[in-house]
Write a structure and sequence with these properties.
299 residues; alpha+beta; paralog of FGE (formylglycine-generating enzyme); four-stranded mixed β-sheet; 7 helices; 19% helix; 20% strand
Amino acid sequence: MTKHLFSLLLLSLSALFPCHAAPASLWQPVWATASLRAPEVLTLRRVQGGVCLPCDANGTVWLGGQNGVPNWPFRDVEGGTFTMGNLPNDSQADSDETRHQVGVSGYLIGTFEVTQEQWEWVMGSNPSYWKGANLPVETVSWNDCQEFVSRLNAKRTQIAPELAQARFRLPTEAEWEFAARGGTRSNGYLYSGSNNIEDVAWYNGNSGSRTHPVGMKRANELGIHDMTGNVWEWCQDWYGSYPTAFQNNPQGPTSGSNRVNRGGSWGYFPQGCRASNRDFNAPDDRYDYLGLRLVLQFP
């Protein structure tokens, strides 16, 4: 990673000298947090791909949750066209955030970052530094995420039989930013869901130098949590310059040295947590601020 070097230095120091000085009681609510549970009342609704899946009153799709399978909540994202890149008059924008038009088809995206409970159910182990079932999984590389997705797809009908023709994957960078900005419901916020980072994110100003359970901050316009802060989220794309012409469902460069991650984390300044901010790591990098969020795609 080459951007935000000062924040990276702080993260490196936190890895060497973790913040264990606080009383254990301060973190007890984190360790004791129960797994995500679906509400009791669910109704079948038609989502992307024409498939009917169980949804709550707020539109969250709830999959799994029975026979030892953890819950997998998703939000249905209607496709559309948007301006990807920095907001007008954003004085914090970096040179790689060039504004350009992008079209995105509909998809489902995780309501929350992948949790440690979910990762362990698929992989049988938990690599995270900060332990807790409902904390986001971290210390996972892009390559680790590809293995996770492959194993998860092999188990998808255990989650729900309706997923036989679907597949889980990482979001493209365009899909990630479209969802972070609120999709077709976007209010043009600087962060995902607000212009006030305190509303929506765990970042270096309030995190206590660690991750927090998913979903504790306010959701964005689409009902998605933690797309700003908590952990950086791997995207599918190689990192590279944005195109100048309109693209529909862009997949990023065909090759590269680094993979994109987005959203900022518990150890980053607000500048690095903006919805337009881009960052990257080598595909085999693992840090306690790197996690993931899933897309669920139907044919």
